[in-house]
Amino acid sequence: MRAILRLTELSARGFRNLAPDPIFFESGTTILLGENAQGKTNLLEAVALLCGQRSFRQARPAEMTRSAEGFSIAGVVKRGFETDALAVTWSAEGGRSFFLGEKPASFREASRRAPAVFLAPEHRELLAGPPAVRRRFLDRLVLALYPAAGDDLARYHTALRSRNALLSRDRGRSAAPEEMEAWTEELVLAGSAVRRYRREALSEWRVFFVGLAEAAGPEYLSVSVGYVSDADSEEELREAFHRLAAAERRRGYCLAGPHRDDLAFTREGRPLSSQASAGEAHRIVFLIKLAEWNAVKAAAGEAPLFCMDDFDAGLSESSAEALFDALPEAGTVILTGASRPERWRRKGSHVREMRAGQVSPSPISAPLPRLAVND
């Protein structure tokens, strides 16, 4: 196990409503409290981008900048006496760029230097949202556990775009057969590799999920998670493309492959989304992300950062207490919420206020007025 990973500093320029002043974090858990639209979620989103991830709100970079020049986010990550200065910039002309110190870096390097897991209200769609939400969750897990899988994911998406382009061109009638065959074979090979990685990642994640569900209670232990696809092998995927060739030409896009797969959350054979209460769904999503944190920890050999937006929204005081007590033992945990600060000060946490894109430099010593329920 490596030295404890901590995020100690963050600053942003041109990013949403965040002020350019640096924000310093103590070790352990920091709770940020504030009214609506003060920047709590924006701050966590900035941390996600710094850690080599996409916006958990699925926002495009152009939607996150308030400057014509784009935005920049910088941070300091420490492991014992080792310090990494990370940065990410974005502009309409240059796109997204990462830096480690003064040197250019890749998003994979940023993810490796700052592994992190995020939980936001948007993640409730893991249970009831469209399949694309669950595929994104699984592919992010794949990249965290198997960085080399990024090459196969990139190959697959390139083949998918190219094959779709051929199919959409006069519904595939003008495409040369050999060109279509070449991209189909590339899609089969890369797609089968992607599915192998997904199933392996899901298997590793499931070990932690089952353990957490068992501790949470029998109603959670009965939750099953399965990978749903139209083929299990390269040959079956080739056969699917052969069988669907006429339908694909009519519709103008691919009708088989990992981009159509899904995760099925069920209980006693029935979709979980149709039977879980709001409270149960909240707890299950927390367990899903906590299992992700444990899987990433096992793969990285260190405890990732853990960030949770609106951690107490809609929860009773006892449920919020239980959730707080179940938080992972990470060097940096950042929570946002709207509770009274005295509820959590007894936990020994660093409770601070966020207002107009700025974080109070020291812990809160008095209750905040008029705190809203949601960010």
What's the topology here?
Blueprint: E1 5-13, E2 23-24, E3 28-33, H1 40-50, H2 61-64, E4 71-79, E5 82-91, E6 95-100, E7 103-105, H3 107-113, E8 116-119, H4 125-128, H5 131-145, H6 149-168, H7 177-216, H8 218-221, E9 223-228, H9 234-243, H10 245-251, E10 262-267, E11 270-271, H11 278-300, E12 305-308, H12 317-325, E13 332-337, H13 342-345, E14 350-355, E15 358-359
Parallel strand pairs: 3-13, 3-14, 8-12, 12-13
Antiparallel strand pairs: 1-2, 1-4, 4-5, 5-6, 6-7, 9-10, 10-11, 14-15
Helix pairs in contact: 5-7, 6-7, 7-9, 7-11
Mean pLDDT: 90
Low-confidence blocks of residues: 366-375
Biggest beta sheet attributes: 6 strands, antiparallel
Strand count: 15
Rg computed from alpha carbons, rounded to a whole number of angstroms: 22 Å
Strand proportion, as a percent range, falls in: 15-25%
CATH class of the largest domain: Alpha Beta
Any idea of the CATH topology of the largest domain? Rossmann fold
* Overall outline: globular
Arrangement of strands in the largest sheet: 2-1-4-5-6-7
Distance between the termini: 36 Å
Second rung of CATH, namely the architecture of the largest domain: 3-Layer(aba) Sandwich
Oligomer: single chain
Structural class designation: alpha/beta
Query: Looking at this structure, what is the CATH superfamily of the largest domain?
Result: P-loop containing nucleotide triphosphate hydrolases
Query: What string gives the helices and strands in order?
Result: EEEHHEEEEHEHHHHHEHHEEHEHEHEE
